[in-house]
Amino acid sequence: MQHVILGAGPAGVIAAETIRKHAPNDKVILVGDEPEAPYSRMAIPYLLMNNIAEEGTHLRHGADHYQKLGIEVRRARAKTIDTVKRTVLLEDGSTIECGIGNVSQAVAEFLKGIAMLHQDTEGLRILQEGRASPSQVDAVMREVMV
After folding, report:
1. Which single residue of 17, 19, 85, 139 has CA 20 to 30 Å from 25?
2. pTM for this model (two decimals)
3. Is 63:55 a contact under the CB 8 Å cutoff?
4. Which of 110, 109, 82 is nearest to 96 (CA)?
5. Which residue, among 74, 79, 109, has the nearest Cα to 91 in the 3D structure?
6. Strand 78-82 and strand 87-90: pairing?
7. Distance between CA atoms of 145 and 22, rounded to whole angstroms?
8. Beta partners for 73?
9. Rounded CA gap, 19 and 34, in Å?
10. Quick check: 42 and 56 in contact, CB under 8 A?
11. Rounded Cα distance, 23 and 12, in Å
């Protein structure tokens, strides 16, 4: 069976590792759209306050962690989920088959809502934005963190 996990944050990483533990022969693909290794967004404030280095935000240490576990990490953004064909179309045009027997339409609708939320949100949401200049960081740090 092939498992596709959309989102390389803490929940996605734990899901991939848990699947690997309980299904050692299944294919596991972790899809995340950021260029960095999977990291914790909750650690960004500590990075901005210089309490940790950027590597401290990474969820797992060791460049080959996912490879050793047989987890394929794809750097891509999901565009659509076809619940009938059980596929995920990525923005780069590639398609991944989902080996799971039941892909919910609710998941596809949820992802559309998340995409719209991110479109209208300002601030430092991702690690790449956390590399902003100190003046940008000061302005955002005065705002509420959600």
Report:
1. 85
2. 0.70
3. no
4. 82
5. 79
6. antiparallel
7. 36
8. 30
9. 22
10. no
11. 16
Short-list 128, 103, 112, CA closest to 35: 128
CB count within 10 Å of CB 46 equals 14
Domains of the chain: 2-141 (3.50.50.60)
Q: How far apart are CA 29 and CA 57, in angstroms?
A: 21
Mean pLDDT for 21-42 is 90
Find tokens 């210089």 and name the residue: 50
The confidence score (pLDDT) of residue 130 equals: 64
pLDDT at 139 over 60: no
Residue 113: predicted pLDDT:
55
Q: Find tokens 């500590």 and name the residue.
A: 46
| Alpha carbon distances (Å) from 135 to 6, 49, 128, 130, 142 | 33, 13, 16, 12, 11
- Note the helical H segments in 23-133: 44-48, 65-69, 105-119
Distance separating the N- and C-terminal Cα atoms of the chain: 37
User: CA 27, CA 3: separation in Å to the nearest integer?
Assistant: 6
